[in-house]
Amino acid sequence: MYYGARGVVGLVKPTYRPGVMESFIKLMPEGVGFIPLHVGVRAGTEKEFLEALAIAEKKVAKLAELGADVVVIMGAPPTMLRGYGFDTAVARDLHEKYGVPVLTATIAQVEAFKALGIRRLVGITYFKDDLNCQFAKFFQDGGFEVAAMKGLEAPFKDVGKIPPDEIYGFAKKVFLEAGGADALYMLGAGWYNLPVIEPLERDLRTTVISSIPAQVWATQKRLHLRAPVKGYGRLLEEMP
Predict the structure, then answer these.
(1) Do residues 103 and 90 lie in contact, with contact meaning Cβ atoms separated by under 8 Å?
(2) pTM for the full model?
């Protein structure tokens, strides 16, 4: 089956960091094509994230022109920092303006929480506490209970180098200290957390929602595909 036969996905990546796009493509079914563009976030500051959406809109316009069937604006912080509900409004406006369905990372994650019946979550990130407080508020304003939202300290440029076993240990510690939850949420696509999703679900007896699997699941829904993947958690295995 040729690439694009089952749909073409336009990817708007926030950074130039390798690994994110590769992980996304790895989890998507054969026959889907991809066109990646980049916003160019480098420092991971609030100022950069707030400016990112204006750049992302230009990328959406280009991807619509190139024939994408759906555009995924990857990266949760740019829409999270603007408050709950902003993501759905901007996705709707971009769809109307450019004629292509638009999905954001936050829309995908909230849809995944709702599809799996998640009400209480424990979150881990690789951001500092000033941003983590805003991320927690985003979900609280959406009606979710946030038991914790803690950041693993690492330079933003190096988060892709954090060993998966370090992510596992940090996630487990934060989850248990918070008293558990319906889900462990791992915010951010920059770290390589795919190998620890299934072990964390098994060991903590919870559901793990991570950025890339959530976007894969939501993108498949918009392309009217259903290709379950084992080994990366309940969301992709069950495809609710």
Answers:
(1) no
(2) 0.96
